[in-house]
Amino acid sequence: MAGCSGEETDEFQSVFGSSDFQLTPELRKKAEEELQEKEEWRERDIAALRDLVADDADLNSRMDDEFLLRFLRARKFDYDSSFQMLQQYYWTRARHQHLFDRLLPSTQERVLRHGLQMVLPQRDPNGCRVFVFRPGAWDPSAVTMDDIFISNVLLLEHMAREQATQVCGVVAIQDFTGFGFHQMKHFTTEHIRRMISILQGSFPLRFKGFHFVFEPRVFYWAFAAVKPFLSKKLADRLYFHGSNLKSLHAHFPRDSLPAELGGSAPGYGGDELARQLLDSEHYFAEHNRYGYTADSGGVAEPPAACRPRYYPGAFCMQSGDEDD
Questions:
Q1: How do strand 207-213 and strand 170-175 relate by DSSP bridges?
Q2: d(CA 288, CA 322)
Q3: d(CA 119, CA 103)
Q4: pLDDT under 70 in the chain at which residues?
Q5: Which residue, 196, 213, 231, 233, is the most exposed by fewest CB within 10 angstroms?
Q6: Between the CA atoms of 39, 60, 296 and 159, what dihedral angle is there, to the nearest 10 degrees?
Q7: In Å, what is the CA distance from 57 to each residue of 53, 75, 77, 295, 299?
Q8: What whole-number distance in Å separates Cα of residue 134 and Cα of residue 52?
Q9: At what angle do helices 189-199 and 217-226 cross, to 10 degrees?
């Protein structure tokens, strides 16, 4: 495993909420080589980002080291780019406040127990967390698209608290077993845009790959609506396996995958995931206190020298040229 497992336990719950920046030797090496992170400079780097954030008078941001470090790692310790991502992160929350006001595990317990999502206990060979989503198991009469968005973001926020995941990243497997017109007709352009805005430039995680399995013909019609919104970098990280599980297993050890994906790990289920998130209710309630002030009108345009290639309000979502 490319130096990302280190001594970290595979128990998903046990590593959350830790503010310990002492990565394992393997992770420290990976962070230095891939992210330009140096332990002896970390305090200086966090302080530099904190100064940039403090200059945004409209933003009430979290300022703790652990939170700011996520953005530095996601943007390879480039201060301006990290600051822009943090602005976009909070702007996205302000833009969709009606959704993010519900970003609490207690509001999504029913959805989480529905079993649409899971996070595999075992990382992939590159040390990435593996997120599984099952759009074909979705019953639109029981779970709304807004619920899916909120619960997906809850899981991303949950994973973003892990030190190893900040360094190594996340990969996603989309299992389209059972997906058809019944689900596809509920996918709206607005939902597509807001989910891609999370993946492209406004969330402090490194998204390293998206794998699609058992995708039916109707999937490609839906994908045609998504493709125009994707950056080239993100598009290059898409893998389409169809019913060829051997192709999927070339990327993920079979003993890490659930039985439904040809593996030997426990099958799909959402009860344990719901329990872990509910245990973090207080964390999310505190986290949700921050953001742009109600009268700020969104993200103030940054100076031209560090202006991002996407602009709040336009949804021209280009993620830039960073090789994360």
A1: parallel
A2: 28
A3: 18
A4: 1-22, 294-324
A5: 233
A6: 60
A7: 9, 23, 23, 11, 10
A8: 40
A9: 70
